[in-house]
Design brief:
2 domains, 3 helices
Length: 83
């Protein structure tokens, strides 16, 4: 393990630079990043990885209700404190 003059680990620095490089190429296009995020969100709310139909629909209903609750809370807080 080598340390540079700032006391940082050179391996950590190289790993961070590699990660930044990867993020630049993945997120180069804003539309692509938003599209990927939307797909991940849709997959999450759909509960695609469940095999049991009851668990699948339970997750879908629960996640849908939590989304509705979040939007309702956001509207309430906006109306109560920002208007």
């Amino acid at each position: 393990m080598t340390m540079d003059k700032d006391g940082r680990n050179e391996e950590t620095r190289q790993a961070a630079l590699k990660e930044l490089h990867g993020l630049r190429h993945e997120g180069a296009e804003l539309g692509g990043a938003l599209s990927a995020t939307a797909k991940r969100m849709a997959s999450h709310f759909a509960g695609d990885n469940e095999r049991d139909p009851i668990e699948l629909w339970g997750k879908r209903i629960g996640r849908g209700l939590s989304l509705i609750g979040f939007v309702a809370l956001a509207i309430y807080l906006y109306a109560a404190y920002l208007k």
